[in-house]
Design brief:
single chain; alpha+beta; six-stranded antiparallel beta sheet; five-stranded antiparallel beta sheet; 20 strands
Length: 676
């Protein structure tokens, strides 16, 4: 057997670290996962990016001493951990796992380490861990102190610009290399400098930069900070004031609330082309805290604005309630009063303040609460308004019984949540008195029409009958006979006028002119009417032409003859004295068409649109101002035809004369039919 191996044949710790770097990296990753017991880590272990460099540095420290370790490596490691939110225990544990992996792998080697290598390796690891932990702790304390001072700056709830300037001042006090700092907030599509401290404060404040052309836009998209090493000459710097301050390093950070860009914070230095890792870490911590303060301040601003708007709305509502001449109230879903104006409170005979928070039944007087509550609960259950509810009760102000009209409606938020029910109450006592007076007037008019229809018709019939008998006396001379004819014509015209007045009054009282349809022959009705008119107008030719075989239908015979009589008399009044008035009846299937035609001056064009309105008159210029009165006749014609479901229209020209056309449907309209 060979003796013990010489020191020159032992394993070099430095060579071991260099040769097994990838194996140690895999061992360390496995150890981390085992420590997490198979759980997915909340973030990637920070050391994975720095382990190759650290293992190489440890190998060099074993060969040349731990003094060769570059402090910047430990600072970079600590910065990375702080930036990821690690705590001190997590940092120490990851280093402990790395140490364990190295020792386990060394134990698995057959060769022993060279004398002193393990000690030098332990010293190097201890140096790395110590410096990292110290820097980590110091930096953590620095950040906490800065953030604590920032929190103090917000205690008195300052406005946005004051808050931002205080935060920037705390930053500059904690970072000696910073000569200028500012916060730009997003307003529309521009970034506006809202707060600035240090160099160029007055020049830069209020300046605007389009978002799409700025470094901040790219930083916001990537959620990453940006660094410019020569702000005075870099074309990406859009603010002229920054160029004029001869700034070198310019470091910016997007201010984010989730994925929403709030703005950008930046700091600049005249002396450095780049900020230290510690300064950038502190700045990022300040920027993150500033984002939270900005978002909270914006929220408070919106809340104050909403509160002020609500107060203005309530003030306007109170003004409306006080000024409204009707009673208005709002109740919650439990039917307790939230708001009520003086008008309605006085109806309840209790002051406004006494209503607030009190249930309906306690405040409504004289037993009317049950009926009102039923309507209110119907609104709450259906979500639909209840309108035109009549309320009766003692009228304290005027005495006797009083009347009010109430409307109830749901009160909702903008998103449809039911808050309660509102009510308006209108005093309708004056309307009730006016309605009673109107009813008296209607009753009087009905009595007057009865008198007109009965007391005037009877003597008129006597006059007409006497004139008829007198006309048959053979001993009358020509002058007396003409006088008798005038009496008969005048009495007939007076009878038609009375009938027209009665029908006009009935139509205006509502329900239209009454009709009683029955099966009749239109030819027989028209022949009878024309014969009657021919007696009254013996000197005027009245003709009837019949086209078609079936001219029967369901019509009111008295109303049909009334229509024909009014149209023929109207034609006689306006036709030339030597021309006939022609009536024709035509079978057109479902309708019987009646036409009355006369020759003479046409109806003026401006009268045609309102020819069937009551009390229309016209003047015929070529007759020297002779008045042509249309009176009520054509209005009555139109109303009767409408009640039969038919139509009437007129054509009037110089060449063709004037023709009134009436369509009579054979089938009567349904019972209760009202013309449109």
């Amino acid at each position: 057997m060979k003796g013990s191996t010489g020191s020159e044949d032992r394993l070099s710790a430095a060579e071991f670290l260099r040769a097994h770097r990838e194996t140690l990296l895999a061992d360390w990753q496995q150890a981390v996962l085992e420590h997490l017991a198979g759980k997915v880590p909340p973030r990637e272990p920070w050391l994975i990016d720095h382990l190759p460099e650290l293992l190489s540095a440890l190998a060099d420290a074993v060969d040349f001493g731990s003094e060769t370790l570059d402090e910047r490596m430990e600072v970079a490691h600590a910065i990375a951990r702080l930036d990821e939110g690690f705590n001190l225990g997590e940092v120490a544990h990851e280093y402990a796992l790395l140490r364990r992996c190295i020792l386990h792998r060394l134990e698995a080697q057959e060769q022993r380490l060279r004398p002193g290598d393990l000690t030098r390796l332990e010293e190097a690891l201890d140096r790395v861990v110590t410096r990292s932990m110290v820097f980590f702790w110091d930096m953590k304390q620095r950040i906490l102190q800065t953030l604590e001072r920032m929190a103090e700056a917000t205690l008195d709830d300052p406005d946005m610009e004051t808050l931002l300037e205080r935060l920037l001042t705390r930053l500059m006090e904690s970072t000696l290399a910073v000569d200028a700092a500012a916060v730009m907030l997003l307003e529309g599509d521009e970034l506006v400098v809202r707060a600035a401290v240090g160099l160029g404060t007055h020049e830069v404040k209020g300046q605007r930069v389009p978002v799409e052309h700025s470094m901040a836009a790219q930083a916001a998209v990537l959620h990453q900070p940006f660094l410019i090493r020569s702000a005075a000459t870099d074309p990406r710097v859009l603010l002229d004031s920054l160029r004029q301050q001869d700034l070198r390093a310019l470091y910016g950070m997007p201010l984010m609330e989730g994925d929403r860009l709030l703005g950008v914070a930046y700091m600049g230095s005249r002396t450095a082309f780049a900020f230290s890792d510690a300064d950038t870490l502190l700045f990022r911590a300040v920027a993150q805290r500033a984002s939270a303060h900005i978002a909270r301040t914006e929220l408070h601003t919106r809340e104050r604005a909403a509160r002020q708007e609500a107060e203005r709305s309530l003030a306007q509502l109170d003004s409306l309630l006080d000024a409204a001449p009707v009673g208005i109230t709002f109740l919650d879903t439990q039917l307790r009063y939230l708001r009520i104006n003086d008008v309605l409170a006085n109806l309840n005979r209790k002051p406004v303040e006494a209503h607030k928070g009190r249930p309906l039944q306690e405040m409504v007087r004289d037993g009317a609460g049950d009926a009102i509550e039923r309507s209110l609960r119907q609104v709450l259950e259906t979500g639909q308004p209840v309108q035109d509810v009549l309320i009766e009760g003692p009228d304290v102000k005027r005495g006797g019984i009083g009347y009010w009209r109430a409307d109830y409606f749901p009160v909702r938020t903008r998103d449809g949540v039911l808050l309660g029910v509102g009510s308006t109450v209108v005093d309708i006592n004056d309307y009730k008195r006016a309605e009673a007076a109107l009813q008296q007037a209607v009753n009087f008019r009905e009595e007057l029409l009865a008198v007109l229809g009965h007391d005037l018709r009877n003597p008129l019939h006597a006059v007409n009958a006497s004139a008829f008998m007198l006309g048959r006396f053979e001993g009358l001379d020509a002058t007396s006979r003409r006088g008798v004819d005038r009496i008969r014509k005048a009495s007939a015209r007076m009878a038609r006028m009375i009938n027209d007045i009665l029908d006009f009054a009935r139509s205006r009282l509502g329900g239209g002119i009454p009709t009683t349809p029955q099966h009749v022959n239109m030819v027989e009705l028209c022949q009878s009417m024309l014969e009657e008119l021919q007696v009254a107008y013996p000197e005027r030719p009245l003709t009837l032409e019949v086209r078609g075989g079936n001219l029967e239908g369901q019509w009111d015979p008295d109303r049909v003859t009334q229509v024909l009589g009014n149209l023929v008399v109207n034609a006689l009044q306006h036709a030339r004295n030597d021309t006939p008035v022609e009536t024709s009846l035509t079978d057109e299937g479902t309708d019987v068409v009646m036409r009355v035609h006369n020759e003479g001056d046409p109806i003026p064009e401006h009268l045609l649109p309102r020819l069937f309105d009551p009390f229309k008159q016209s003047l015929t210029p070529d007759e020297g101002g002779k008045q042509r009165s249309l009176g009520l006749g054509l209005y009555i014609v139109h109303e009767i035809v409408q009640m039969h479901g038919g139509s009437v229209h007129v054509e009037s020209t110089v060449e063709r004369g004037t023709t009134f056309t009436v369509r009579w449907p054979r089938v009567p309209p349904p019972r209760g039919y009202l013309p449109p």
